[in-house]
Amino acid sequence: MSKRPSRLRISKSSGVSGATARKLTIGLRVGTALAAVLAIPALGQQRPESILPPGFGDPTPAPSPAAARPKPVPQAPAQPNQGVPPPAAPVPAAAPASLPAPDATPTAAPSPGATPPAPTDFAAFVRADMPSFARRSLARVGVAGPAEGAMGPNAFGRADGRFLEVLMQRLNTPVASRWVSIALRRALMARVDTPRGVNGADFAAERSWLLTRMGESVAARAMAQAVDTEDYTPKMFEAAMQAALATGDGAALCPAAEAGAELGQERGWIMARAICAGLSGTPARAQPLLAQARKAGIAGGVDFLLAQKVAGAGQSGRQAVTIEWDSVDHLTAWRYGMATATGVEIPESLLATASPAVQGWRALSPTLDPRVRAAVAELAAARGILSSAALVDLYSAIDAGDDQTGAEVGIARDLRAAYEGPDAKARADALVRLWDEPKTAEGRYARLVLTAGAAARIPTTLEQPDIDRLVAAMLSAGLDVPALRWRDKAGRGSNAWAMLTLVDPAMPSLNYGDVSAYSGANDAEGLKRRMFFAAMAGLGRMSGAEVERGAQGLGLRITQENSWTRSIAKAARDHEPGTVVLLAAIGMQTRQWHGVSPEAIYHITAALHAVGMSGEARMIAVEAISRL
After folding, report:
1. What distance in Å separates the CA atoms of residue 575 and residue 241, rounded to the nearest whole number?
2. What is the pLDDT, as a whole number, of residue 265?
3. Cis ω on the peptide bond leading into residue 174 (within 30° of 0)?
4. What is the model's pTM?
């Protein structure tokens, strides 16, 4: 192992850590075409930068390709009042290009075999003593199955695991669509057969790491815990630490702390060993380990103090550690995780420097006060991390709280009025107040998700209803049955008419004249009309002749092929829903819906429809209309 300086700094000029640079080098060997497809859809994304503190997350080079580490959490530049970068210009209306063939073999693929343990490796004794029925196989790894809402074991079919891993590693998050994110979570959490060419633990690590970057901290931790610690690979150690920090769960580090520290590559695991000694109620062991780590320069400053505070949280810890943030200029995964684990308040100025994924982590954190979570929970709902029901529960807790001041309380009261108003008009007025308040497109869509259930309670006899937003709210949460009650009330050519046409299973096939009749509100450029046509064509609701006619009339190149279109079409033909969803996310690597092309919507809806995910395809199409 090469010698490292005691304090490693991350270059902010390049925004890429040493480990990330090595991963980019490996990715380039797969082919320059892959880099092109992953770059084209990305908007508002910065080059990945570690949010680990100096000395955490920059280990010595891995001994083999199997030890390739997940990329560090990308860090967005600091912005006033929010942790997201400013919007970028939308990409041209074209489907993503250049993707490697699914059967491509990267030159630095992980080894499918596990490294034999050293004779003194404690894990070897555990494996020898553990009965076979208690061990979990790496041939099929995951958290949930179809009964729990996840995909089936053959979700990735015969796709090359190395191809899938490269896609996961290079996917920029968050993606534009709430429904694509939901489908991707179902694929990543599924108890699936390990694809050919990869180790089961490494493939689970890539899934856990992508979930972490999506803001799905709880799902990421569950994926890391789906692999027995004695089967951990270096990549799995890295992903497990990131997931534990994202959930603010210091104890989640403990099952792997000893083995992780023995690797000698990750300073975080060395600190975790001391932390877990404290949490286990043995401060006599924890204190020497902390002192040794500090003397060796493994951690210092606020990073050391936070670790010391977590270690002192165990029984008989008897430590009072004060955390001051004055000298800290940015948030890291370590600082976030350790602070959250002990209930230390993180300044808003530091939260603004973090990746958008942190908003999802905070929305899912049970240790935060509901009023604190509310600010990020709506954004998390818009991105598919929280359900409409979970968001309603959060505001219900705020409404029932003792403190009845603040903006969050006003939202909770309006939400209660939307459900319990004295008559339909009062409930509808409360909905309008909630819809009109946000100033951003993402905030407005989040309010549709929040009010989905209340919108479903509005009777169709209401005079002068806001049908467009009522329908959009219900469909944002997938409530298509109550939404279809408004079918006869929606004027032909309106947004509500288009959305209900997309979700109505009884709707006959359309022709190009029907598409031309759609003139949705706020669609001066005709983008909504092109999205509507692309989705109807992808869902098979138009004849081939009408599709060709419409494509020519609207100037769309839906028949043009590239590596991405061929890959997603092949995954659909091979009936690989997990691969289709992953490629759909690749095609929507933007936080602005104006950056999603109608051609991409056509190929995504067609592929999802082909693998039996027509419901998701329809909701993605509806989302395009309601969010533009």
Report:
1. 34
2. 67
3. yes
4. 0.81
